[in-house]
């Protein structure tokens, strides 16, 4: 698994060459699990989108099909995670818990009532956070229609930006030869606006 994540570009291209369109199903499964299962935030997200775009740019995948598959996986995964949090998450909060107390649940509900839409959309661009945000939105009983709307918007922006970056820049020799650094740089750029906003609010 570690080798697959560290050399994702090589492995994904090999899978495309050997299995063709079935790779779309693999991409869907990885994004769905990373987004929808709270125990799998370690799966590749941003890097998978960038590399998928790069492979599409080299002519091995269709960018529109890949983008549609990724956006659908992100939306469906978000909804699964939301409903797990909504149906079962509140059971984690009780008076005996040191960290998850009832007053924390009340604060969560109040936060998502005022800032839930922005949180769901912006969290899509931050690794780890995007896995937990839908779950917490469900715990906070954010209205499902509102959640789905912002989740869809975030999924479309996330997919469009990262797949496009991979498509147009992923095959530039300098970036391709230093792919790990490139992907890390993209992740930092994606997360930077959210981090700066949080720092301003804290200040």
From TrEMBL:
* Keyword hit for Transmembrane: yes
Give the source's domain of life in one word.
Bacteria
- Membrane topology type, per the record? Multi-pass membrane protein
Would the keyword Ion transport turn up in this protein's UniProt record?
Answer: no
For this UniProt entry, which segments traverse the membrane?
21-43, 63-84, 144-169, 181-199
State the UniProt keywords alphabetically: Cell membrane, Membrane, Transmembrane, Transmembrane helix
Entry GO terms, CC: plasma membrane
Q: Where is the protein found, in the record's own terms?
A: Cell membrane
Q: What is its main location?
A: membrane
Query: Which Pfam families is this protein grouped with?
Result: VTT_dom
InterPro entries membership: DedA-like (IPR032818), VTT_dom (IPR032816)
Family from the record: Belongs to the DedA family.
- Name the PANTHER family for this protein: INNER MEMBRANE PROTEIN DEDA-RELATED (PTHR30353), TRANSMEMBRANE PROTEIN (PTHR30353:SF0)
- Name used for this protein in its record: Uncharacterized protein
């Amino acid at each position: 698994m570690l080798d697959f994540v560290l050399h994702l570009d090589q492995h994904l291209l090999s899978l495309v060459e050997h299995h063709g369109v079935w790779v779309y199903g693999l991409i869907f499964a990885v994004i769905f699990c990373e987004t929808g299962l709270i125990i799998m935030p370690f799966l590749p997200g941003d890097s998978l989108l960038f590399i998928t775009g790069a492979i599409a740019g080299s002519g091995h995948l269709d960018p529109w099909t890949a983008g549609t598959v990724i956006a659908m996986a992100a939306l469906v995964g978000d909804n699964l995670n939301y409903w797990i949090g909504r149906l079962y998450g509140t059971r984690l909060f009780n008076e005996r818990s040191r960290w998850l107390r009832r007053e924390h649940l009340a604060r969560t509900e109040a936060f998502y009532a005022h800032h839930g839409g922005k949180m769901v959309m912006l969290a899509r661009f931050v690794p780890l956070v995007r896995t937990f945000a839908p779950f917490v939105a469900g715990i906070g009983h954010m209205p499902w229609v509102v959640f789905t709307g912002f989740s869809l918007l975030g999924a479309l922006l996330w997919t469009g930006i990262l797949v496009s970056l991979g498509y147009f820049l992923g095959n530039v020799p300098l970036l391709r030869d230093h792919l790990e650094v490139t992907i890390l740089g993209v992740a930092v750029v994606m997360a930077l606006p959210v981090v700066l906003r949080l720092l301003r609010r804290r200040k």
